[in-house]
Amino acid sequence: MRRLMICSFLMVLAATANAAQPIRLGLNYPSTGNYKSEGLELRRGALLAIETLNRQGGVLGRPLELISRNTAAREEKARANIEKFAAEGAAMAFGGATSEEAIAAGQRARELGLLFFPTLGYANAITGHDGQRYLFRETNSAWMSARVLGEYLSWHLPNRRYHYVSLDDNWGHSMEQALREATRSRDRARHGFSRISARGAHHEEYLAALKKAASSDADVLVIVLLGQDLVQTMRLAHDLKLDQRMQIIVPNLTGSIVEQAGPQVMEHVIGTAAWTWRVPALVKSEQGQAFVDAYIAQHQRYPDSTAASAYAIVQQWAAAANRAGSLHSEKIIKALEDHRYSLLKDEQYWRSFDHQNVQSIYAVRVRSRSEIMQDRFKQDYFNIIHRMDGEAAAPSLDEWQEERGDELSLR
C-alpha cells in the first residue's frame, strides 16, 4: 500500500511539473538590417501579449514563454530559425518582415507540423498561390490594400497619370499589379515604372528611379517599398521636391517608417494600414484601448500596427488553443477556421478556404509636421481618410481559386 501511495504521489508530482512547464512560442524578427525598427515593434507586441496572457493564467494552465531569433529579413535565416524553434519544442511560430520570409518559413513550419503566422508579409501569394493549411495571415494582402486605395483614389484623384517605383520581389510585383488594376493604370507606356533590387540597392539606384519619375508627366508617384529602402527613397524624393508636384502613395504605411524618414519628408503621403492606435477609440473597443494604454505605459510611445499584429496573433493562437483544449496544430486549425472575434478593433475572422484574416482596411494620410509636433509623443502620424469593409477588400473564393489553378484547397 505504501509503495502504491508513493507511486501515485510521484505521478501527481510529474503531472504538476509538466502542467507548469512553459509553452514556447517562436518569433522570427529582424533585429538587424533594413527592417530592424519593425522587428522591435514585433517583439514588443509579442511580449505584451504574453505578459497579458500569463497574468490571466496562461494557456491550458501553463505560462507562455517567447523565444526569438533574428532573421535579418532573409528567407534562408527565417527557414533555419523555424527548425531551431521546432527543436526547442515551440508550439507555434510567427513573425518576419518580408513576403519571401513568410513563404519560406511557412513551408518549413508545415513540414515540421508547426502553425506559422506571418507578419509584414503582404504579397498575395502568401495566402493565394502559395497558401497552405499550416499558415494563417493576420495582416492584409496587397489585393486588400489596393482595393481600399483604388476606391479612394478613383473618387478623389480620378484620371491621373501614375508612375511606380517598386521592389523587385514577390510583394513588390503583386502590390504594383493589384494597384494598377484598382486604379486602371495598367498601361505601362502611359503609367511608367522602375524596379529596385530586392537586396543590396544603393543610393544611385534609388536616385535613378526617382529621376525617371521626375522626367515623366505623372501626377501620382507610387513607391512600393518598405524598411530602409522606403526611408532612403522618400528622403531623396523630398530633396528632389517630387512631393511638391506629385501625390505620393506608399501602399503599406507604418509609424516606424514616418519616424525614421521624418514627418516633414512623409507629410501628406497616402497609404493603408489595418490598424492605428486611434482605431480602438473610433470603434469603441475596450480590449483595443487596454492594449494601447498598456503599450504607452511600458514604452512611452504609441503602438504601431506592427506591434498590434504580433499582439493579436499571440492572443488569437492562445484563444484557439484554449477552445481546442490542445496544443495540437490540427485541432487549433479547426478552432481558428471561420472563427469570428473582436480584439483590437471591430469584428475579424480567419477564412477557412485561404486562412486570410478578413478585417476592415483603412486608407490613411500622414498628418502635417506641425500637427504631429503638437502631439505629446510627437507620434500621432495618421489621419484615417477612408475605410473599406474586409469582405469588400478581400478576394472572393472564385478569385482565389483562379489564382490557385488546379489546387483548389489548402494542403
Automatic annotation (TrEMBL):
Q: Which UniProt keywords apply?
A: Signal
Keyword Isomerase set for record: no
From the UniProt annotation, give the residues forming the signal peptide. Answer: 1-19
Per UniProt, residues of the Leucine-binding protein domain are: 22-368
What Gene3D superfamilies would the database entry show? 3.40.50.2300
* Domain of life per record: Bacteria
The UniProt entry's sequence similarity note says: Belongs to the leucine-binding protein family.
Give the protein's recorded name: ABC transporter substrate-binding protein
Protein's organism: Stutzerimonas zhaodongensis
